[in-house]
Amino acid sequence: MAEPSAAMSGIDKAAVFLMTLGEETAAQIIKHLGPREVQKIGSAMSAMQNVSREMVKSTVDDFISRMERQTPLGIGNDEYVRKVLNDALGEEKAKGMIDRILMGGNTKGLDSLKWMDARSIVELIRFEHPQILAIVLSYLDSDQAAQVLGLLPENTRADLMMRVAAIEGVQPAAMNELNDMLESQLRGGGAGPTSGLGGVKCVANILNFVDRSAEAKISEQIADLDADLSIKIQDLMFTFDNLSEVDDRGIQTLLREVSSENLVLALKGTDDSIKSKIFKNMSQRAAEMLKDDLENKGPVKLSEVEGAQKEIITIARRLAEEGQINLGGAGGEEMV
């Protein structure tokens, strides 16, 4: 019999775990999370209903099991910090944070944007030079950057993505100036090296979160301007259809992190190859239940399907960054 937490997403597990700790302890943990994590976990906590004792026990047991696999002791030096952050976040996501922590960066102005909704960010930066917009998009989390991009004029999006792809680093003086400008606008009121910004991978990550029609237009415009760059971006993008290229063990690992509700939504309207891939990596009973849920699920909005698929893609990319699965296909690396 599957554990009660097996069908819960990672965000739901985190929400249940924090709720078991009490307000004071949970608050101490939450203050160390980023704005996107706080928003997601906060939403999950507010939506929690009928949490059974078995679900709590299973979630806590899962946490203890994960902690027992971690190194319990470490030395408080730079190398230890790098290892912990890389293990926790994946090398790519951790890089910018490591730069800011270890190199003494001060990015208050940019960090403030991560707590704002996309429309407010656009209102703040829309009259700035396109290169400033590109740096901001590079700095935001990919899903938030995609929301901001979607609110900017359509005829500027491809140019902005090409500027993001061309960024290889930002000089400290430029970052200081940008932070001062943003803080002045935000509050009416400096930065170290931040070499983790921008690049082709950043563009691919952002476009993964843009809705399909907008992504197709942006990609077409980039291809017209720079065919080689377009190919590099497409090679690094990972779509829901690419799940058919993930090995069986990877699919099984992924399914443990995905909620049943999201899986049903994501599979609505997908081709048979994806469904077959999912069914074959579940127990016979679970596969039959999923098939029944799909058959009984009435019409759903395309936006809901795409939203569920994007959430699963996000989980897949996180697991890949942690080294737990190999995405293969788009953006994957050959195993030797």
Features:
336 residues, mainly alpha, Annexin V, domain 1, 20 helices, 68% helix, globular
What is the compact description of this entry?
Helices cover 68% and strands 0% of the residues.
Could you walk me through the main structural features you see in this protein, from its secondary elements to its overall organization?
The chain has helices at residues 10-21, 23-30, 35-47, 53-68, 78-89, 91-102, 108-113, 118-125, 130-139, 142-151, 154-166, 172-187, 200-209, 212-225, 227-236, 248-255, 260-267, 272-280, 284-296, 302-321. It has three domains: 4-68, no CATH class; 103-236, Flagellar motor switch protein FliG, alpha-alpha superhelical domain (Annexin V, domain 1); 240-321, Flagellar motor switch protein FliG, alpha-alpha superhelical domain (Annexin V, domain 1). With 336 residues, the protein is an all-alpha fold. The chain has 20 helices and no strands. The two termini are 35 Å apart.
